[in-house]
Amino acid sequence: MIGVVKFKDGKDGWELREIDRPDPKADEVEIEVQAAGICGSELHLYHDNHVYEPPVVVGHEFCGVITRVGEEVKNFKVGDRVVSENNKRTCGVCEFCRTGRAILCRDRKSVGYKVNGGWTKYFCTPEKWLFRLPDHVSFEEGAMTEPISVATQALFVKKTVTIGDIVLVQGCGIIGILNAMVAKVLGADKVIITGTSADEDVRLAIAREVGIDYVVNVETPDLKQFVSELTDGKGVDVIVEASGSDKAIYEMTDLIKKTGNIVVIGETAKKDIPIRWTDLVFKAATLYYSFGAGYEAWSMALYLMEKKLINLKPLVTHRLPLEEFRKGFELLETKKALKVILKP
What does CATH list as the number for 151-289? Predict the structure, then answer.
């Protein structure tokens, strides 16, 4: 079978390779991958700004159908439609594993970075990481469970958004738009999402289509003035930082309300960036960092999908065969795409 392999640093360190079909271990199932998403973190990997252990088959956003099961598998069967958390192996005994935060385990083997992932035809994983995909959720939608869980982890599990909040989401990539949608479901009164002129044709247009309250091109109005007028000069209750932009991060201080919550999700291209620390102290702001998701967040993501509380169909802008993964990267880099789905 064919897989997309990252085997060394550099853009020439990616290739389609013929790889062996894996056999499920006793506690594992084999999944025939039906759809796989390109994540922003894989775009970072494309530029060698993300940890990985080469050679590795890339891909951690995917779903499919179980085709084989190990002899110790009890709760799933051949034919089940499933999605999987993006852990492969963890220690199982550390503080984080025992409190449902296995994604923070020091010994975690992350799918698509440290062990082979889902940009291929077949993938094996322990049944303990599986969730059933609701019957009326499509495979393309199912492949977005992981990024939705990133939003439910940041806002629902961490309890950073409450009913009546005014929420500003910085960045209109897939993570930004999903956070804006989840914030609204959780009871936010007004949700603002920002982008730039480069986002106008696709990403900001989709943000308007899915009904986000205020869609703002930061290169046109004065965002600080806009927020001030909307909030009677108080500032927003919550900022979700999903842009990774140095400028946006630096200017958060002017936009957050006193005692407000800042939720950081976006990765930055630079290791060190400036932030007005003392100003945030004087505002008594609370700074939350959120990484990945655990069981509770995945379960909530699937609930939102099952109940059709978020509209995912407009988010998929491109569908490509696996062989055209480089085109997918190009579409995302030029902001001509929002969500690219690969079909093995």
Answer: 3.40.50.720
